[in-house]
């Protein structure tokens, strides 16, 4: 069983120019909860008073999902987060040699600080779900990560998150998350530490989803996501694509209602002012749209000839696009859709010619325009 942590409201707001007003954040949280997300990371309360207020409002909403806050390894951050009433706390501290050197700290000093802050948080709220993230874990010395993770778990952390902060990992190479997750779990087990393992994968090289699945196969129990894959730089794992693969290909039965995906994607897209790319998997406009003649002819008979996912699973339907690539089968199918199913073959060929002409100008013909084409050709039939 894998859990999904959605970070649209935290990592997503680290996308340049993206900010959600509190009433929009509440709507997004409600939709994520209806979808069945396990943990909603609502923000880093210390960043601004507005974010603090949003986290408070979401935390008291009574959602099924655990509501979480982000915090540095500082008591100030922990106090602020806990004052918001969250059930989940994510504490982060990078233990790479370079970052420690920048801060003029020794590893043991950083580890002590991490352990003290986690112990403090645990003492304040015994039932709190605590995650420790060694930022840039995969490029840090493994022993540093192991030492920090061991101390964190001993101090009370429930989850260790392996952060591929720069999208560094590549499946099938020595730097892969499958091996990393397995190794960390094994080494922690030798120390009688058995936390849940999370993976937080950035998309700098376009491999966030592949890396997350690699980590899952290696034993990770939690995967971080965001709607539209929003986040720093190229963002993180796209929520919809991951959920479809987990349910359809890994046969996970977590009770996620994937038909809720289009609604939450439209909402996040509108208020982030970031369009859903038309060719985006699952949620893009063209994800279930067939165009070329051979494709449409086969798809009309059976959409799965050219689809590996049933669109109904995610609350969508297959579509046929009419343009310069269309064939007669696509035109006849679309004519049937507008109630024009008994036309002479010559007339249908004239409709097809007109559709191709429009398509060559860089447009597609939708059903309302198809009606206008039929009317025009009737009014201008050849003598």
Q: What would your notes on this structure say?
A:
This protein has 383 residues and is α/β, with parallel strands linked by helices. The protein has 2 domains: 3-272, Aldolase class I (TIM Barrel, Alpha-Beta Barrel), CATH 3.20.20; 289-379, no CATH class. Helix content is 43%, strand content 12%. It has 14 helices and 10 strands. It has helices spanning 22-35, 49-59, 75-83, 97-102, 107-124, 142-155, 177-190, 208-218, 239-248, 261-272, 293-301, 328-337, 345-359, 367-379, and strands at residues 3-6, 39-43, 66-72, 88-92, 129-133, 159-164, 196-201, 222-225, 289-290, 319-320. Strands 1-2-3-4-5-6-7-8 form an 8-stranded parallel barrel, surrounded by 6 helices. The longest helix is centred in the N-terminal third of the chain and has 18 residues, at 107-124. The protein is elongated and about 90 Å long. The termini are far apart. The model has no long low-confidence stretch (mean pLDDT 93).
């Amino acid at each position: 069983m894998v859990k999904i942590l959605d970070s649209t409201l935290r990592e997503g707001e680290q996308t340049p120019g993206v900010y959600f007003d509190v009433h929009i954040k509440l709507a997004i949280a409600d939709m994520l909860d209806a979808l069945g997300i396990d943990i909603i990371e609502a923000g880093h309360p210390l960043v601004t008073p507005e974010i603090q207020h949003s986290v408070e409002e979401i935390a008291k909403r009574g959602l099924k999902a655990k509501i979480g806050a982000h915090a540095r390894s500082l008591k100030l951050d922990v106090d602020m987060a806990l004052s918001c009433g969250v059930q989940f706390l994510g504490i982060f501290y990078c233990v790479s040699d370079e970052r420690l050197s920048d801060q003029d700290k020794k590893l043991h000093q950083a580890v002590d600080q991490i352990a003290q802050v986690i112990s403090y948080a645990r003492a304040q709220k015994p039932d709190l779900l605590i995650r420790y993230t060694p930022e840039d874990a995969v490029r840090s010395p493994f022993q540093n990560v192991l030492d920090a993770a061991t101390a964190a778990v001993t101090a009370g952390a429930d989850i260790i998150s392996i952060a591929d902060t720069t999208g560094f990992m590549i499946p099938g190479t020595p730097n892969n998350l499958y091996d990393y997750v397995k190794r960390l779990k094994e080494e922690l087990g030798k120390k009688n530490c058995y936390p849940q393992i999370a993976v937080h994968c950035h998309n700098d090289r376009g491999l966030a989803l592949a890396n997350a699945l690699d980590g899952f196969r290696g034993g990770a129990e939690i995967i971080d996501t965001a709607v539209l894959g929003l986040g720093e730089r190229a963002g993180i794992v796209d929520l919809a694509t991951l959920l479809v693969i987990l349910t359809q290909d890994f046969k996970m039965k977590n009770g996620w209602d994937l038909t809720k995906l289009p609604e939450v994607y439209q909402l996040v897209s509108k208020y982030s002012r970031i369009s859903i790319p038309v060719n985006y998997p699952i949620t893009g406009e063209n994800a279930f749209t067939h165009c070329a003649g051979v494709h449409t002819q086969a798809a009309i008979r059976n959409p799965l000839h050219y689809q590996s996912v049933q669109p109904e699973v995610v609350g969508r339907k297959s579509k046929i696009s009419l343009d310069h690539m269309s064939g007669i089968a696509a035109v006849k199918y679309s004519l049937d859709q507008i109630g024009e199913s008994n036309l002479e073959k010559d007339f249908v060929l004239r409709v097809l010619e007109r559709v191709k002409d429009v398509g060559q100008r860089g447009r597609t013909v939708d059903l309302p325009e198809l009606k206008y084409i039929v009317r025009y050709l009737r009014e201008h039939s050849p003598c």
